[in-house]
Amino acid sequence: MTTIGTHRPTQLVIDQAAIYHNIATEKARLAKGTDLFMVVKANGYGHGITQVATTAVKAGATGFCVAILDEALTLRAAGFNQPILVLGITEPQYAGLMAQKHISATVGSQDWLEAATTSIETVSPDQPLNVHLGLDTGMGRIGFQEPEALAAAVTALTASPAFNFEGIFTHFSKADSADTAYFEKQISRWQAFMAVLPERPRYVHVSNSATSLWHDACNGNMIRFGVAGYGLNPSGTELTAPFELQPAMRLETKIVFVKQLKAGNSVSYGATYTAQQDEWVATLPIGYADGYERRLQGFHVLVDGHYCEIIGRICMDQMMVRLPHEYPTGTTVTLVGNDHGATITLQDVADYCGTIHYELACGFTTRVPRVYLN
Ligand SMILES: *Cc1c(COP(=O)(O)O)cnc(C)c1O
Asked: What's in the GO CC field (predicted)?
């Protein structure tokens, strides 16, 4: 991935040992014979797709899930030869390319199979397309709606030399909640679908991170391990993970400008912050164009273990914080991570701006270089 911004001290520091720990610990908890496919969509949740994939394989992952075909092609181009499942619906015109590259497709309707056949026969006559049938048991996003439609599609799928029936799966919408009623409703729909299946394909999978952490009895023989692999709790703060998740992402920068702001003077667009007394203010080279949300005005960063308030509007490329006293330019500033015993988690940042850590992690832009530890 192209990165710019290497001549500026703003960076995401990714601890590969943390990713290794999270995946290896989860893998060790799984029933024997259960595969772990690491979900590396959206540039590995912002952590870097190929670096995460490399660590994941070392930690015991035997395959990958991505959201779109381009992400799968990136892994193939980087030399990964493990199974890769594209979780979203790919346009049928690319079925031949997927077959040729041994990339598995998610299919949610019989129409798709019909529309994809010509492309496979033309582009990949000797290598069938591996298909995972997606079942909509209550997520309401993609997948078969009724067992009858599934049964008909399985008949068509297994009769055609263009396809190999490799997997079947569903996705839960509330596996990360203490209230399990909706989860159980989805389980019973899943069972109704599975009852019409003449034989089970190689991979039967239902678990995202939350399902595998809190409902592992229903795992099937493969899990799609995503956010927890990056050390983030899928439930936010609602449920406690069965083992310590180690966050892999740290966001840091350095002070590039320091001044004493005189009482009565204001800061940033709209002059929304006015100093009540003389105070020390640092300018940081990061802004909303880097994925550090403008809504974080009033939140804080860490300087030398002190929580320092973000004052005034966050600009596209810069923002200001109030210091307890003067610090020199070049002083490290921690926006996410630990500093002298104090911590700001991605969860804290997400809570402040009313979103989830998933959105923030994948929202840091290409202008922020990823630097790898361990
Ligand atoms: C993104 C995704 C996952 C991974 O979810 P996490 O909550 O990050 O573990 C699993 N399955 C599907 C279908 C997904 O879209």
From this structure: cytosol
